[in-house]
Amino acid sequence: MAEPFATSLRRGRPLLWATGAGDDLTALLGWGERLRVDAFGPDRFATLASAFADFVAHRPDADPRDLVAFVTVTFSPDSQAASTLIVPRTLGRWSSGALHLDTDAEIPEPSAPLDDFDERDLERGTLTRQAFRHAVAEAVRRIGAGDLAKVVLARDLKASAPDPIDLNAVLARLQRANPQAWTFHVDGLIGASPEMLVRRRGLRVESQALAGSAAVTGDPDATDRAARALAASGKDHAEHAFAAQSISTKLRTLGTVEVSAPHVRRWPRIMHLATDITATLREPRSALDIATLLHPSAAVCGWPTEAAASVIAELEGFDRGRYAGPVGWMDATGDGEFAIALRCGQASDDRRAVRMFAGGGIVAGSDPSAELAETATKFLAMYEALSPVARP
Question: Which of 76-80, 115-119, 201-205, 331-335 comes out lowest in average pLDDT?
C-alpha cells in the first residue's frame, strides 16, 4: 500500500529498523509477537540464538527471509535489563513510497498524531556533570599508570513528560534528522545509531568502527576546520585505532579481512573518525553469531576489554541496560544487520519518560571538560527528537 513512511509508523507501535531518505528510505516494521524471548547473564546471546533456531526449525516450509527476529542485547552480562528477541506476527517492508506486507494479515489503522510538541523536562542522571568529570580524570590517571589503554565512560539523563510520549513521532523525527543512521525501535529502546557493528549477506560481512569526534555546528567554515583538526588529531586517532583493531582482529578469526584508512564522516550534529572493515567468511556464521563475537568493541568499552569493563562498572556506577549493546535484526538464513545502540534512549513502560545515554572514549590526554562537552553533543539527537521545539 502506498503511503508516507510516517503513516506506516503510526500503525500501532511497530518494531522498527530504518535507514535512508526519500526514495532511498528502506525499513523493516513488525507488529505483534509470534515469539518473544528474554535472556539474562553471560549466556544471553546463546539463549536468544538457540530460541530463534528452534523457532525456525519448526517452520520448515516458511520462506526463511520472512522469518525475521528483532533483537536488542544488553551491554553487560550483569545487567538487570532483559536482552530480548521478538519475531513479529506481521512483517512489513517499506520502500519506494509503499508498505509491503509479508501476509494478508490486518495491521492497525494509522493513529492521529498526539499533541507532542512540548519541551521535555530533563532530570539529572546517575552522574552529575562534576561527577562525570571526576570519573574521566580518574580514568586518565589509571591509563597513565598503565592499568589500561582506553575506557569508554557514559552518563545518563531522563526526559520526562506528564502524558505518554508519542514514540512514533519521536522515531519519525529521528529518521528524518539522521538519514545516514539506523533508526530503531525494539521493546521500548529507540534511537538512531551511526555505527554498524555487523551487516551480513551470505559470506560477506561489513562493519564500521567509529571513535574520535567533533561537533558539527551551523557554521560551515568552523565545521570544516573542526573536521581538519579531527583528521589530524593524534589523541583521536589513538582512540580510534583501538576501536578499529578490536573489530578487525576478531573478524580475522572468521575469514579474510580488508580495512580502510580512517576518514571523517559527518552527521547533523557530530562527526567521527571512521574505518570501514569488510570480511569474507570461511564458513557461514549468522549475523547474531558475529555480533556475539564483536561485542563489546573498544568503541563502546575500551581496551583491554576486561580491564575497561571493570573500570566502567566502578566509575559509571549505573546499569547501562541495552545502551551500547547490539540492536538490529536477523532472518532465518542468518543474514541481518546489527548496529551498536548509540544516540538512544529506553522508554519507561508508561512512556512518560525516556532514559537517554551518551559516552566518550577516554585515552591518555583526554580532558574531562572536553569529554563532558562531547556527551552533551551526543545527547542532542535524542533530545531534539523528543523536544522538537529545541531546534527548528
Answer: 115-119
Residue 221 inside a domain? The answer is yes
* Catalytic entry in 33, 138, 150, 314: 150
Task: Note whether 156 and 319 are within 8 A (CB).
Answer: no
Q: Is 239 a catalytic residue?
A: no
Q: Looking at the 3D structure of the chain, how many domains does it have?
A: 1
Domain membership of residue 318 as a residue range: 5-103+121-390
User: Is 234 a member of any domain?
Assistant: yes
Q: Which among 98-102, 112-116, 211-215, 308-312 has the top mean pLDDT?
A: 308-312
Q: How far apart are CA 141 and CA 72, in angstroms?
A: 34
Q: Which of 33, 138, 195, 384 is catalytic?
A: 195
pLDDT in tens, 334-386: 999 999 999 999 999 999 999 999 999 999 989 999 999 999 999 999 999 99
Residue 256 lies in a domain: yes
Report the CATH number at residue 68: 3.60.120.10
Residues 49 and 285: their CA atoms lie apart, in Å, by 12
Q: Has residue 243 been placed in a domain?
A: yes
Residue 377 CB contacts under 8 Å (≥ 6 apart), including other chains: 213, 215, 269, 270
